[in-house]
Amino acid sequence: EVQLVESGGGLVQPGRSLRLSCAASGFTFDDYAMHWVRQAPGKGLEWVSGISWNSGSIGYADSVKGRFTISRDNAKNSLYLQMNSLRAEDTALYYCAKDMGSSWRSSPGFDYWGQGTLVTVSS
Amino acid sequence: EIVLTQSPGTLSLSPGERATLSCRASQSVSSSYLAWYQQKPGQAPRLLIYGASSRATGIPDRFSGSGSGTDFTLTISRLEPEDFAVYYCQQYGSSSWTFGQGTKVEIK
Lengths: 123, 108
What we know:
The complex is a heterodimer.
Chain A: E1 3-7, E2 10-12, E3 18-25, E4 34-39, E5 45-51, E6 58-60, E7 68-73, E8 78-83, E9 92-99, E10 110-113, E11 117-121
Parallel strand pairs in A: 2-11
Antiparallel strand pairs in A: 1-3, 3-8, 4-5, 4-9, 5-6, 7-8, 9-10, 9-11
Chain B: E1 4-7, E2 10-13, E3 19-29, E4 34-39, E5 46-50, E6 54-55, E7 63-76, E8 86-93, E9 96-99, E10 103-107
Parallel strand pairs in B: 2-10
Antiparallel strand pairs in B: 1-3, 3-7, 4-5, 4-8, 5-6, 8-9, 8-10
C-alpha cells in the first residue's frame, strides 16, 4: 500500500524558515517524480514544486521561486521542502504527491497524495 | 502560465442525475497532461482521470473524461451519494502545473 506521510508543519513568523518532510513507502521511491502541492484554507489547489526521480530536473511555481527548495533522498525514501522567507500568503496545507512518471514535467498526473501538513505563517 | 477555468462554480444535482463539469484552458494543452481530481472535505485529492480520458486505478466507470485542445469535460453518468465533492482539473504546460479553481457538486 502506497503511503505518503508529511511532517514539519507548524506556526512560524513571517520571514522565518521551515523544512517539510514526506516519508514514502509502498512503492519504489526512486522510480518516480514527486511534488509538493498546497491548499490555503478554504481555497483551491496550487502546485508548488516538483522533482524528477534522480533530482536531475526541478521546477517551482513563480510564487515560491527563489524562496523554496525541493530535494529528495532516495536512500531514505524521503522528499523535502525547505521554505525560507515565509510570508503570510504561504499559509496552507502542504501535500506531498507521487507522480505517475519519472519526470516532474509532462506526466499524466499525481496518483497518490499524503494527508498534508499545515503551515501557518503569522506573527 | 496556462490558466484553467472551471464551470460552473457549483452544480446542484440529485443522486442518480448526470453531472457535466467543464474545464477550459487559456491556450491549447496536451491531452496527455490533463487530469481530474476529486476532493472531499478533510481529505486529500484523489486522481480520477489522467490523459484527459483514462480512468485511474479503482475509479468506477460512471466517471468519464473527454476533450482536447482548450476544452475538457468530466462527466459523472449517475451521481452516487459519495460523489458529492469538489472536482479540480489540472494540466502541465509552460514549465508549470496548474489547477482549475474547482467545481463543487452539491446535493440539491
